[in-house]
Design a protein that fits this description.
Length: about 475
């Protein structure tokens, strides 16, 4: 590392070109790239090349690297980093003797314990899943393992870095999502050290994050109303921006974590946080599926699934969002979903902005943002069909509205005709002496004449009170008499 730190731009370019790495960029970028090469990919050939370049330029001073000389004047930009393998006093950045300085730490490439990892050329890196509400602008610190320094359960891992002037301007010039919260942020992400697949954010036990001299708030636990179910914690990026120095000064971040056997990695990123409204606009721009493609999907589904539970000639789709029980405005679903039913993109994005789950409310399967599509055919149907809450797709791809059952069965002629015909044709139970049935028959006859009295009205009230105990035709008769008297 000391040799690499003493190289000039031409030496760094020669070294990076030797291993096939990019030679473009500023000096601090070349130094960072070369130090990463030393830490993770230092083969004998690479080490030989570094030694050759160093001896060519500093042949006479090669013995001074191991024993750094005290410095009379210190640069104002000097930095002291304390770790398990790098302890001592500060030295100037411009000095060749750089035993006590880790240059890439200025650019977010250092974390305590990193040097204890054995270098492996083919070791895969930890990757974090992409988050729809965060657009990554810069990677300040690649996911780096939290390595315990002792046998204590509570560990501390520091990270020291500085923002570049361009990054500071991006933060300062960004708009505010809410008072005091900028849209461009420096965030800390933590996950399991697992290289098999992209990892979701996961906090270690007893986590605490300190930025410079203040502790940063970390999302707490969701309370659980179910007995025996532990409360869950929403693990998401931790915004550090409001506690950082937005200048050339270095920032020190200390992660306190519980060492209970599981391995975690942390990364620092410069991101732009998006809102649900911005994601909705992006979805409307690039995520609309043409009505003809949706129509072809309907025909294909009915062809492949003719024995569905609903019908053999069509499939019903509700125009009501299953999330909020309101009429759809922007119908959408995931391309991976097997159903034609949609949910409202507006409410779906708002809900995931507050509590990200990205699960389809129809089939309870993953419905991530990058797989959402807006159903162009159903969007068109919503504008043409305003008086129905459900439609049916037919085998040829066409559709028809389905009215509510109450609207279809409530014709005024039907109950009146049933009343007259049932009474005349003797559909009601025959009178049995002077009991209730006899009264009922007499009431019907009297109602067809203009001779109603208060006594008959009282008898009708008694019949309605006993309606639950009488036969089914009796209840229908009471309802029908009400219709006739209203006429």
């Amino acid at each position: 590392q000391n040799m690499v730190m003493s190289f000039r731009v031409s030496d760094l370019q020669m070294l990076l070109g030797f291993v096939g790495r990019s030679k473009s960029g500023l000096k601090h970028e070349l130094v960072t790239r070369a130090l990463q090469l030393v830490q993770f990919d230092c083969s004998p050939e690479v080490f030989k090349k570094i030694k050759e370049l160093y001896e060519t330029r500093y042949a006479k001073k090669s013995s001074e690297v191991a024993q750094p000389q005290p410095q009379q004047h210190r640069s104002p930009e000097a930095l002291s980093i304390h770790s398990s393998y790098d302890r001592g006093s500060t030295v100037p950045r411009t000095s060749i003797s750089t035993t006590n300085i880790d240059y890439p730490a200025l650019y977010g490439k250092y974390l305590n314990g990193l040097g204890r990892l054995p270098p492996k050329v083919t070791k895969p890196e930890v990757r974090l899943v992409k988050l729809p509400f965060y657009t990554t602008l810069d990677e300040l610190l690649k996911p780096t393992e939290l390595v315990p320094q002792n046998n204590e359960k509570l560990q501390e891992s520091p990270c020291i870095f500085a923002l570049t002037p361009r990054q500071v301007e991006l933060i300062r010039n960004s708009r505010e999502l809410q008072p005091g919260v900028k849209s461009v942020q420096v965030v800390l992400r933590i996950c399991y050290t697992d290289t098999s697949s992209p990892q979701e954010d996961q906090y270690p036990p007893n986590i605490a994050v300190k930025v410079n001299h203040s502790y940063c708030s970390v999302p707490g636990y969701y309370p659980s109303n179910k007995p025996g179910v532990e409360p869950k914690r929403p693990c998401r990026p931790i915004n550090l921006t409001h506690l950082m120095y937005l200048s050339a000064a270095t920032n020190r971040i200390t992660v306190t974590w519980g060492n209970y056997g599981k391995s975690y990695s942390v990364g620092l990123y410069l991101v732009r946080q998006m809102t649900s409204a911005e994601l909705l606009q992006r979805l409307k721009t690039i995520g609309i599926k043409h009505p003809e493609l949706c129509k072809a999907l309907v025909k294909e589904k009915l062809r492949l699934d003719p024995d569905s539970e609903i019908a053999t000639t069509g499939v019903r789709v509700s125009l009501i969002c299953p999330l909020v029980k309101m009429r759809l405005s922007v119908p959408c679903r995931a391309e991976t979903c097997a159903h034609l039913q949609c949910f409202d993109a507006v409410f779906y994005l708002q809900m995931n902005e507050k509590k990200p789950t990205w699960m389809c409310p129809v089939c309870d399967k993953p419905a991530p943002y990058d797989q959402l599509i807006i159903d162009g055919l159903l969007s068109k149907i919503l504008t043409e069909c305003e008086d129905a809450d459900e439609i049916e797709y037919l085998v040829d791809g066409s559709w028809c509205p389905i009215r509510a059952e109450k609207e279809r069965s409530c014709s005024p002629q039907c109950p009146i005709l049933v009343l007259g015909s049932s009474d005349v044709n003797g559909l009601l139970p025959t009178p049995n002496g002077n009991g209730e049935n006899g009264k009922a028959t007499a009431d019907v006859v009297d109602l067809t004449l203009d001779s109603s009295s208060s006594e008959e009205e009282e008898e009708e009230d008694e019949e309605e009170d006993d309606d639950d105990e009488g036969p089914q035709p009796k209840r229908r008769c009471s309802y029908e008499k009400g219709l006739v008297s209203a006429c």
